[in-house]
Amino acid sequence: MTALIVVFIAIIVLVAIANRIGVAYPIVLVLGGMAIGFIPHMPTVPLPPDLVLVVFLPPLLYWESVTAPTSEFRENAFWIFQMAFGLVIVTTIAVAALAHAIVPGMSWGVAFVLGAIVSSTDEVAFTAIADRLNVPRHLIGTIEGESLVNDATSLILYGVGIAAVVGASFSLLHAAESLALSIVEALAIGLAAGGIAVMAWRAIKDDTVQATISVVIPFIAYLPAYYIGASGVLATVTAGIFVSRFTPTVIQPQAREMLTGFWVTVVFLLNAFIFVQVGISFHQIVLRLHDYSVAQLIFWGAAVAAACIVVRLIWTFAQGFLPATNEPEHVEGKADWSHVAILAWTGMRGGVSLAAAVAIPLETTAGPFPFRDLVIFMTFVVLLATLVVQGGMLPYVIKWLRVRDDDETVNEERLALAATARAAIARLDELERQGVFPHGILELHRRRLQARLAEFSTGGDRGAARVTALFRDAQRELIETQRKELIALRQEGKIDNTVLRRLQRVLDLQTVEIQLIGETGHSELEER
Questions:
Q1: Residue 512, exposed/middle/buried by CB under 10 A (0-12, 13-18, 19+)?
Q2: So what's the pLDDT on residue 16?
Q3: Are 196 and 220 in contact (CB under 8 A)?
Q4: Is the pLDDT assigned to residue 141 strictly greater than 80?
Q5: What is the mean pLDDT of the chain?
Q6: Strand 334-335 to strand 330-331: parallel, antiparallel, or no bridges (unpaired)?
Q7: Are 193 and 221 in contact (CB under 8 A)?
Q8: How far apart are CA 292 and CA 255, in angstroms?
Q9: Side-chain-facing half-sphere of 144: CA atoms under 13 Å
Q10: Contacts of 439 by beta carbon, 8 Å cutoff, 6+ apart
Q11: What mean pLDDT is predicted for residues 163-168?
């Protein structure tokens, strides 16, 4: 328990430092964890690999797939699937060949296991860094789509390599059949889990139960696939993408609000915990490698990390030469090389790779698993090089290439706000003809909706935008006054704490609405 408290205190301090210095928090967490790991007698949290693969990974993958830009997945399928399958296989083979050549006595089987472990990128690591970067949405969609799928490919190759080392029979045909079967089984399980969840949401309207269903979905998808030898990663991602099409209509508004806060907090804590633990574990890994010299460890680790980076650079730029006209990385059939360069540079590895390394069996039919500790060490070096070096340089690469957000999300938000205002005004006209509500009540709503329509319509009225921005600023002032009065009433004993919290929630929701719409609109305060 003491070690767990230390980790969470470290997370709070390190994330605060990361925000203060403007560096993505995963980088600071890993480096901070490494420093903590070298403190004498520092208590550590044992992190069994199954805990990461079975407990941590499903919720992380589920939430990222639910919130991912799925429309970009379809448009960028050309890039996503070639990188999620082809690049993973090529990286596995290249790293295996290099490790077999430079590490004396390392068999092809062990080298293949190492290659499979470090071949896939980690969307968790990328997303935590990308949140701070100003890049086009389709680029984020491509990278997230690749990372969500390529774990499935690498873990299947990893399983094949482990089987070969521990003494099971191995054949290329069997490996290909296993990969195909695993994909089909994972897709079926993911769709089934998603379908069950949607039916449950439609049948049960209780907010708390609906929220509970959302929490268990990732495990309903992941665990059956994991235990039958299929890809739990692909099953979870499939379930998440499937339910994302239905959640806007089958989940109650209060349950949706409850779930958003829950998932954002849980995903952040799981991410942060993994990155700190990765850093802390470095010291323990190094201590077990006393049979090798420091020079050997540095050379082998750096060589494997360089191979991962170089293979991705070569593959991605080569893929840019392939003809494609229906996806955003090509303009009139020619690659947008600045975007291709960013794709090539975003090869961050994460906790999944390290968990797979730690999950290597201790024993084979012939004795201890050969080079197990060395494989774990080289995996960590690859993670460190890609996350800290590539991730740390990514903002400068983006600035150097002059890549900017194309405002696609903001434009779609403006379109949606205008369309919803237009639909509401049409409904007001129907209600007025029906005489359901007094004219004065409807007119109040009409004026508010007409102002929103004027602000967010294509080529919107800038004067209307200025007026509505000022209106939102006035709303903020009035909400803050009401909030202070509520607190004063509680302090004076005139209302109970339960009343305060209930009414404060109403004011908080109004504040969130103003903030979200204000970010899309033209805030008067931002223009000053």
A1: exposed
A2: 92
A3: yes
A4: yes
A5: 84
A6: antiparallel
A7: yes
A8: 55
A9: 29
A10: 432
A11: 76
145-177 burial: b if 16+ Cβ within 10 Å, else e = bbbbbbbbbbbbbbbbbbbbbeeeeeeeeebee
> Pairing state of beta strands 363-364 and 367-368?
antiparallel
Average pLDDT estimate for 1-19? 86
Please report how many Cα atoms fall inside a 13 Å half-sphere around the Cα of residue 361, on the Cβ side. 17
Distance CA 124, CA 274 (A): 10
pLDDT recorded at residue 291? 85
- For residue 96, give both structure tokens: 């295996």
User: In the predicted model, what is the mean pLDDT of residues 511-521?
Assistant: 80
User: Which residues touch 299 (CB under 8 Å, ≥6 apart)?
Assistant: 102
pLDDT at 362 over 60: yes
Q: Is 375 exposed, middle or buried (0-12, 13-18, 19+ CB in 10 A)?
A: buried
Q: Token pair of 231, please? A: 């890809």
Crossing angle (nearest 10°) for helices 207-228 and 232-244? 150
What would the mean pLDDT of 3-26 be, rounded to a whole number?
86
Task: State how far the Cα of 336 lies from the Cα of 318, in Å rounded to an integer.
Answer: 13
3-state secondary structure 406-446: CCHHHHHHHHHHHHHHHHHHHHHHHHHHHCCCCHHHHHHHH
CB atoms within 10 A of CB 221: 34
The rounded distance, in Å, linking the Cα atoms of 191 and 203 is 18
Using CB atoms within 10 A of its CB, is residue 494 exposed (0-12), middle (13-18) or buried (19+)? exposed
Greatest C-alpha distance within the chain? 87
Q: By C-alpha distance, which of 68, 88, 64 is closest to 316?
A: 88
Higher pLDDT, 355 or 488: 488
Range 191-195, long-range pairs (CB < 8 A, 24+ positions): 191/238, 191/239, 191/242, 193/217, 193/220, 193/221, 193/224, 193/235, 193/239, 194/221, 194/238, 194/239, 194/240, 194/242, 194/243, 195/242
